[in-house]
Amino acid sequence: MTYVVTEACIKCKYTDCVEVCPVDCFREGPNFLVIDPDECIDCTLCVPECPVEAIFAEDEVPENQRAFTALNAELAKAWKPIVARKEAPPDADEWKDVKNKIDKLER
Asked: Is the pLDDT of residue 21 over 90?
């Protein structure tokens, strides 16, 4: 099993999760993070670190977010690893409670 970053991360991209990952499985896109399912060791350390509760175990991803499992796998192949915490985008707090923002995902 792997962990999956879901829609809540879009345009927020807090990187608290990256800092605790022991295997550097996070990948960074322009306004979203993903988890590389081939690297994730299911340690759960990232889950409580996410301030927008965007990370779920693969078998616990909400039904309306299940497409993010395949999206994480796809984008992990294209995006570079992120191994250190960075500042969140300046408008991250404005986006953290916004729903249905898949159309805002930048690849």
From this structure: yes
